[in-house]
Design brief:
This protein is an alpha+beta fold. It is about 25% helix and about 35% strand. The strands form two sheets. A three-stranded mixed beta sheet has the order 2-1-6, with helices on one face. A three-stranded antiparallel beta sheet has the order 4-3-5, with no helix packed on it. The protein is elongated.
């Protein structure tokens, strides 16, 4: 389950940023997670619940912004929504796709005290 290592990295980022500002608590965290990032949300939620115990994120409000997938066909330049990786272009059927959006995985903001 790589979701646990991702949550642990988020905790590490939070602790480092909080230490920079002498914060003792995180009130809110906002994450951006793309639909093509490979994150299984039920596994992520389970890992989150277990990993944030006794950390600065334990009582923080968590907001997740889901970024929809978007691909650009390298053959015909069509820009189209993607539901999964390796989707062919709906216009010409080619598989040479450049992913434009949807692979994001970042901490967008923290509200600390």
């Amino acid at each position: 389950m790589h979701e646990l290592s991702i949550v642990m990295s988020i905790i590490d980022i939070t602790e480092k940023e909080s230490a920079k500002h002498n914060a003792s608590q995180v009130d809110e965290i906002e994450l951006e997670i793309g639909t093509l990032s490979g994150i299984e949300m039920p596994a992520f939620d389970f890992a989150w619940q277990q990993a944030v115990r006794s950390t600065l994120l334990e009582n923080a409000k968590r907001t997740i912004n889901e970024i929809p997938g978007e691909g650009l066909c390298m053959e015909c330049d069509a820009l189209f929504p993607m539901q999964q990786l390796y989707e062919p272009c709906p216009v010409c059927g080619h598989h040479f796709i450049s992913i434009q959006k949807g692979k994001e995985l970042r901490v967008k903001s923290l509200v600390i005290n």
